[in-house]
Amino acid sequence: MSTDAHELNRASWNAATARHLTHRRDLARRLRDGDATLWPEERALLGDLAGRRVVHLQCNDGADTLGLAALGADALGVDISDVAVEAARALAAESGIAARFERADVLDWLPRAAARGERFDVVFASYGALPWISDLGAWARGAAGVLAPGGLLAVVEFHPLMYVFEEGWRVERPYFASAGGQRWEEGVEDYVGYSAGDGAGAGDGGTGESGDAAAARRWVNPNPCVEFQWTLGDVLSAVAAAGLRIERFEEHAHSNFWRPFPDMRGDGRGRWFPPRGRELPLMFSLAARAG
């Protein structure tokens, strides 16, 4: 079920991931030392993972998949990027944490896994996963198809409202989707560099930006990408139509790790907030259960 847009995104993510990895040289040590890679929002949704079969869709470089495994899960990560999956396997070997990784477009992988009889206690997706899916209904049906009876779909995602803004909180794009998605010639950004590489979020919430972060914002991916805007209504309807029972839905007034705009306020713990007076939902979390 691969689309031209997904293959375009595969090339863009390969370039972006190679760039992101230059900022993440201490991941294996942190994982070995037991540093948590999962945020409280994920931990609250996932609960006790000991002995549970978990598939992490669009797992990127595998850090969070290995975080799931470190909590006792039998974890599998799936991602479209060749570079990301190679990095994930290397990170697993270097950290000594056992997890499996497969390179595939999730819209292809999900129905094939279901046909093979693979079933999971948890299907997990987080942080920028859904905007890369061209068919949200197929994604939700695929997730439902690999869930064991009583299994959990857990999603922590950036709020679609965030994507309508540009710097200065100007509304530049529609909230509702356009057919075929939105093509960006500049490709996937170096968001790792301008978010994690910037120490300005420490202390009392300063909004300044370091030179390294500013340089990361200027980096241009040589491969274009296509993003798909899904509203909250689209997400909830797709999950419900797939036969899953929504148990929990929450909107959050902060963004974990990602600092899309330089004037966002940090709390010193990796959370970023809009300027005062522009309090908006920046993330949401969703838990849905198979029958």
Automatic annotation (TrEMBL):
- Pfam families xrefs: Methyltransf_25 (PF13649)
> InterPro entries in the record, alphabetically?
Methyltransf_25, SAM-dependent_MTases_sf
Per its record, how is this protein called by name?
Answer: SAM-dependent methyltransferase
Key words, A-Z: Methyltransferase, Transferase
> A GO BP term, please?
methylation
Q: Which GO terms describe its molecular function?
A: methyltransferase activity
Sequence intervals crossing the membrane: none
Carries keyword Methyltransferase?
yes
UniProt KW Methyltransferase keyword: yes
* UniProt source species: Conexibacter arvalis
The residues covered by the Methyltransferase domain are: 54-151
